[in-house]
Here is the input.
Amino acid sequence: MSTIATPDGHNTGTAARVEELLSSMSLAEKAGQLTQYFYFGNRSAEPEPWADEQSRQVEDALGHGRVGSMLFVSDPAEVNRLQRLTIEGNRLGIPALFGFDVVHGLRTIFPVPIAMAASWDLEAVERAQGVAAREARAVGIHWTFAPMVDIARDPRWGRIVEGAGEDPYLGAALAAAHVRGFQGGVLGAPERLVAGPKHFAGYGAALGGRDYDEADLSDSEFWNVYLPPFRSALEAGAANIMTAYMDLNGIPPTGNRWLLVEVLREKLGFEGFVVSDANAVRNLVTHGFAADLTDAAARAVDAGVDVEMAISDPAYAHLEEAVAGGAVSLEAVDACVRRILAVKLRLGLFDQPYVDEEHARSTLADPAHREVARVTAQRSAVLLRNEGGLLPLDPDGLRSVAVLGPLADSKRDTLGPWAFDFDLAETVTVLEGVRARLGESSEVHHAPGVRPISRLFPSIFDQFPANAPTQPDNFDDEAELTRAVDLASGSDVAVVVLGEWQNLIGEQASRSTLGLPGRQLELLQAVVATGTPVVLLVMNGRPLDLRWAAEHVPAILDIWYPGTQGGHAVADLIFGDASPGGKLPFSWPRSVGQIPVVYSHTMSHDPEKQAERYWDEPSTPLFPFGFGLSYTSFGYSDLVLDRNELPIGESLTVSVKVTNTGDRPGDEVVQLYLHQRYGTASRPVRELKGFRRVHLGAGASRTVDFTLGRAELGYWNAAAHDHVLDLTTFDIWVGGDSTAGMSASFSTVGERAPQKMTNG
Ligand code: BGC
Here is the structure.
């Protein structure tokens, strides 16, 4: 048995054991293996009778062999208790898999995924998710429902915070980095998790940015924009995929055989297991797609949904009926069971189903994890404005600092959404970080200035402790605003932390506007009017309407939801102990009416008027994709292509010299963009096709190389219904954002017909 558990990549022992188990299982036992239950235990803020009842139902199901996996349990003692119930409850002693949304940390919370994307630092992301995996595995979690690799081009959609933004190339690079961090080199590696990229596919294109609403994607968008991050996550070895909730071109992904079999398994070559999103199999009925739960179960299994994630009354409980009635074959059920058993065996669960609670405690307390969180947060921040070099602040020159705003001292908001097992006591807010950095040398005053706002409609996440901000008692709005402004007047500098409370973003947290919620803009305007220099720190997971700030506030630093060590990381940045080097992973719209605004649009008609598509406002973004300033400056020179004629199918090397032209060390993200001048389709004006984050000392230079080949030059063509490479001329640009000016060109040479690529 131990040979099966060895993560050696050889499956022969596993396959034999799978067949042995399968041959002795009843259909009901098979359905049990394919069923995953939420288990909320004592997670609710308030004891909820329905949660108690649900837990009781799950324990009953465990005791009768009707459960193959669980989610939402992260207390190691609970994991052990429930695992024991599972093993004792099924005839064959098959252990349960425990899954959880380890999205940006378990106990140590890292910056939210959109922030990690803004770091453009693949090693940093891999390192952070490696720590997340280590903590999660120590408490008994085997599998994470992450990364979310959905491209998001509409920031009204709250889940933009969970992904890597608008761009397929950046998204693909990030997807692989997350998977490497979570899962390690081989499935079953110690201290690692099964990675489950989600939500397959197109969820980010929800109409109007309204979470769960349908998505209608053209073929071209599907293959060229929404699929590349999934392909990349799978190439990095991800062993699981989660389906998506909404209808995709009229068909719910969870029952979509074309999507899950033809695309996922046949074209992308996926051999792992598929889980439905929560209740998504049952919901095939509410979509108006399946006739009833039996039909839903049959269609999901037929499409290859190996595991049904359910809160209660799973559709897969009807599988016996579905097989008996001929709606789905036993072979289809067996195929799902094989995949789930194989994962359990490859993870070594049969040998070691339980966790060591003491080891879990010491792993969660590891101070090295907090250090990784601090560095990741430093690397994620994006400097959007720095007029007159206000930042970094000189700590020695400051007598008094006002740290203002409702998010300046909110521990829960500093962590962001999709965090459950955090420790608020060890979470460092901006106020605490500034105080710790300045010590006794300066006075630091704080006022929130404005109260939290409440959602018009609550979300499911409000059931978790501390999720929604509590309204302060006796909060006199006018007096508090005045107090904040007075503190600004009497200080050398005002650091104002504004943005969205974390419960205003994430799942079920879409919005129809992008303004700073509540009276935050009014606070900012009043503080700026005092004449005290203002540093605006934006705490967010989506672009907000910063038109006024971008003109009137000298320094703007996007700190996102920076995580457990956020306050220390922010203090490192604003006082110059670290330098901001992040870049935007999306085009920052001026106003909500511009959405979607994407840098990689096509030329279309009248391209010279691209910036003037509206008569009332420029149609360009407020800040372009890839943008971010530094405390130093960078220059580019010596752009060289190793050839100007590229035989189709070969690759060329682009090199460019980047120099730190300022007087401080700093990081630059060197970016390469490509445009195809003509061909068998009109291609975007620019598309990211390479990037590298480099650190350069003052005055230092470095040559950065990029390779352009089939993967970068090919694209999916709606007329050919395949990936093609055109005979054409390409322009490239290299620089520090998507408006980079330094350019060169080359042509592809070879046969005339469009060059179809294999493996669509
Ligand atoms: C979300 C998934 C998540 C699942 C389990 C669903 O509502 O869409 O992303 O993994 O819940 O928490």
